[in-house]
Design a protein that fits this description.
This protein is of the alpha/beta class and 204 residues long. It has one domain: Nucleotidyltransferase, domain 5 (2-Layer Sandwich). Helix content is 42%, strand content 15%. It has eight helices and five strands, in the order H-E-E-H-H-E-H-H-E-E-H-H-H. It has a five-stranded mixed beta sheet with strand order 3-2-1-4-5. Helix 3 crosses helix 6 and helix 4 crosses helix 5. The protein is globular.
Length: 204
């Protein structure tokens, strides 16, 4: 089994007395349809947490089954976690980056604990006043961010499976709204539905 990402950033902050560190990641930014999701995870400052989450890593490197197994484990081991969404309508209105930031803010508002510091997978966020560090490829450099990537991905996948029943024929349960040949063929056959992102150049 591949080792989980390190806790280098978290441990440095823990040693400086910062206990509540919110790892943040998103899912669905590049999809053609459906919302963007963002998760925040606060892990306990315990020596055994990396061993307890041994199967957790960047969600893109995990199989769907591995992610579904890891998600409840993360929720059990975390001090706090939350997932927020921004809809396809908000993405069209605001743009994908502002909508992603809005999803993050919604997740932060739902947390039962207030993070003292944020670790983000790299995202451009001018004006963010909370203490934070944005890490390129953060889900491979921080276990907190990797855990957030798993929760953001599994929550969005579950939502897209539900939307497959509401908007049949597009294959949302299979491709989760991303650009695949199946999705493109469905668009050519049926045209876009209510959850497609009209601001994305996908309907030609």
């Amino acid at each position: 089994m591949t080792d989980p990402p390190p806790l280098t950033c978290e441990r440095k902050l823990w040693r400086n007395g910062i206990r509540y560190i919110g790892g943040i990641d998103e899912a669905g930014r590049g999809a053609w349809a459906g919302p963007v999701s963002a998760a925040v995870v606060i892990l306990p400052a315990e020596a055994g947490i990396r061993r307890a989450l041994a199967g957790v890593r960047d969600s893109k490197l995990m199989t769907p089954l591995q992610r579904e197994h890891a998600a409840p484990l993360i929720k059990t081991e975390a001090l706090a976690w939350a997932v927020g969404f921004s809809s396809s309508e908000e993405i069209d209105l605001l743009g994908i980056l502002p909508a992603t930031r809005q999803a993050i803010l919604r997740a932060l508002e739902m947390l039962p604990l207030s993070p003292e510091y944020l670790l983000l997978d790299y995202i451009h966020w001018p004006g963010l006043t909370r203490p934070h560090l944005a890490l390129p490829k953060g889900e491979r450099r921080s276990l907190s961010i990797a855990a957030a990537s798993v929760l953001a991905k599994t929550a969005r996948d579950a939502l897209m499976r539900g939307l497959d029943d509401q908007y049949p024929g597009y294959g949302f349960a299979r491709h989760k709204g991303y650009g695949t040949p199946q999705h493109r063929a469905a668009l050519a056959r049926q045209g876009p539905c209510a959850i497609h992102r009209r601001s994305f150049a996908i309907h030609g």
